Give the backbone structure.
Amino acid sequence: MTWTAAETNKHQDHVIAHVIGATPLGHFIHDETAYVLLDIGFIWNIYLDLEMGLVPQVMALSELGVDAESFETTDVECGPIESVEVFEDDQERRLVLNCEHSAWVIETSLERRSTRINAALR
């Protein structure tokens, strides 16, 4: 794939500004949407087209009918999010959370209607 930097809109920029400095604690995928549990009491939801939002943790868990233990954790230490990068390649999207010790990569496919999350040391 040939990833190219993608433009973000004002709403995405606003959400990204709020998550800088927060630490991802876990994640899960439900109905093609990625949910990232943050240490600031919010859940960051990321849709296939990389539109996103922040929802208070208690509200999000209630709406989803899950608890905090439903979130997968990673063995890779991450630390706070330092930057977020957005890329695209035709119908594929990639959101990279550059954390203090690792990077979380969220890849979506509009064509296949799929989402996946990987964490790896930087």
Residues 26 and 84 are 17 Å apart (CA to CA). Residues 4-121 form one domain. The chain has a mean pLDDT of 93.
